[in-house]
Amino acid sequence: MRTVRAALSGSIGAWRWILAVAGLFVGLQALFLLLLVLAHSIPAVFIYSELATDIADGLWTTADHPSDGISHRGLSDAYTDCIVLTAGLSSHTATAIDPLWSALTFPHLGSCEPAVAGVKALSTGGIPAIEGTYGRYWGGFAVLTRPLLALGGIGAVRIAAVLLVGAAVAILLVVARRRIGILPAIALLTPVLVSTNFMTQSTTGFSHLIEFSIALLGGALGFTVGARSSWTIAAGGMVAGALFVFVDFLHNPPIAWMLFVFGAVAVRLESHPSSRRSGAKALIAATVSWLAGYGATWAARWMIGLASGAVAWDELSGKVSRWTSGTDDAIDLPSGPGAATKINAGFWLDVPTALPVALAVLGLLAWAVVTLVRTHDRLAARRMALLAAPALLAIVWLEALSGHSTWHAFFVYRALPMAAGVVAASAVMTALARRLLAARS
């Protein structure tokens, strides 16, 4: 009888959790849409007037992909920045545009050259020659960028992006230090910070900094919920994935995914160092829930857009086919197992600091492995394998979206140094744990 009652109690508890998370998810989608409508309610004249002044002052150029200044093949994604800067602007801007419709369709003035020309036209009472829509993305960055553009133009947005990423790095380091120690936290972030062009993107790629900031904050959430139940980790993963896709342009989702999952697993194993099963549960809960939150929120955007007529089904099916097939009608992209990972590895290793970082990570890994071999500690070896497992998510993502990973390797490559950071942090945590155990003995 007690067994039956326990089973019923557990079943009721699970259903309550499911209903609570479902309610949280629906609430998030409603909040996202409300915030977008409010952002798009800002009078466009305030924005294009500031942008026109910035163009006249030389703060904005027509180059879509200027050099990042640090790598032979390194490029900055000014193309996306131009779309972000003109989000909500269209040929109807001069008269009026419904904020809800603007939030759903995500109108913009195109890549940098037509965007600059379009802003000039609007500022002189004309009509932009080219415009487009990006209704397949939530465009949540507009909640930050449109008010800042209206108040201070491009400069205000760039300064805010730098401050945001700096604050996010600091928050993640503080939270991680309390849970796993400062050395593993530094090992986790160092590769992606010092062997990519993230830190050179303040003027021609600030949209990437905004996304990176949300990814870092999602990682901090992973470190926060990791010691709690698998249900709590799953709820946290759903929130982290949903928040990231709200601002994401499909630039570096695996970075956000890995950060959350590693944080949850690392803290769980620190709380239960001898329980491999507990760590495995955290790994599964974090991995599945983040992807579910990300995917379901993206799907919700599409469902809202399709139901309202703001987005066409062909746009969805065409992009999904292009980004997952590894083929492109216009260009013969390399394909086959491992092709996307290999191409992105080449872009990463072209960064001057990438090879020393990769060698340093291999050195840390060798140090940890030698320590485990000398001590014959199978439990610690399994623990390190669980800690390092989130690094595989980078490969999974690159290969699953092989077309996108290949076409956009000049920024997608950052997933690999993030994976290297996960491996480095796992090695440091393992070696330090062994040293602490030996000191206590």
UniProtKB/TrEMBL annotation:
<keyword id="KW-0812">Transmembrane</keyword>
<feature type="transmembrane region" description="Helical">
    <location>
        <begin position="148"/>
        <end position="175"/>
    </location>
</feature>
<protein>
    <submittedName>
        <fullName>Uncharacterized protein</fullName>
    </submittedName>
</protein>
<feature type="transmembrane region" description="Helical">
    <location>
        <begin position="283"/>
        <end position="304"/>
    </location>
</feature>
<feature type="transmembrane region" description="Helical">
    <location>
        <begin position="231"/>
        <end position="249"/>
    </location>
</feature>
<feature type="transmembrane region" description="Helical">
    <location>
        <begin position="206"/>
        <end position="224"/>
    </location>
</feature>
<feature type="transmembrane region" description="Helical">
    <location>
        <begin position="385"/>
        <end position="405"/>
    </location>
</feature>
<feature type="transmembrane region" description="Helical">
    <location>
        <begin position="255"/>
        <end position="271"/>
    </location>
</feature>
<feature type="transmembrane region" description="Helical">
    <location>
        <begin position="354"/>
        <end position="373"/>
    </location>
</feature>
<keyword id="KW-1133">Transmembrane helix</keyword>
<keyword id="KW-0472">Membrane</keyword>
<feature type="transmembrane region" description="Helical">
    <location>
        <begin position="182"/>
        <end position="200"/>
    </location>
</feature>
<feature type="transmembrane region" description="Helical">
    <location>
        <begin position="411"/>
        <end position="433"/>
    </location>
</feature>
